Amino acid sequence: MQEILRTNNPVSLSYAESLLKDAGIDCLVFDGHTSVLEGSIGAIQRRLMVADDDVEKARRLLADSDIDG
């Protein structure tokens, strides 16, 4: 798995996750629980991960949607 997005912005993360799922790309959010445990103050960024085979397609989709990864 590779990271394609790291952010503190829950809206951007949710939007990116939705775009990927709609395109048939499986993704996982890493560090979501850690972020909540530390009080959601934004010190720990969440990471959006995809399978190695989907990295290029996912990055292209996020770039086309103006989401920086």
Explain what this protein looks like in three dimensions.
There is one protein chain. The protein is of the alpha+beta class. The chain has a single domain, classed as 2-Layer Sandwich (Alpha-Beta Plaits). Helix content is 42%, strand content 22%. The protein has 3 helices and 3 strands. Strands 1-3-2 form a 3-stranded antiparallel β-sheet. It is globular. It starts with a strand and ends in a 5-residue tail after the last helix.
Describe what is shown at a glance.
The chain has 69 residues and is an alpha+beta fold. It has 3 helices and 3 strands; from the N terminus they run E-H-E-H-E-H. The two termini are 15 Å apart.
Summarize this structure as a short list of keywords or feature phrases:
42% helix; 69 residues; three-stranded antiparallel sheet; 3 helices; alpha+beta; Alpha-Beta Plaits; globular
β-strand number: 3
Task: Supply the CATH class.
Answer: Alpha Beta
Put simply, the count of helices is: 3
Helix content: 40-55%
**Termini gap:** 15 Å
Order of helices and strands: EHEHEH
Taking pLDDT < 50 over at least 5 consecutive residues as the criterion, the unreliable ranges are none
Protein topology:
Layout: E1 2-7, H1 10-22, E2 27-30, H2 32-37, E3 46-50, H3 55-64
Antiparallel strand pairs: 1-3, 2-3
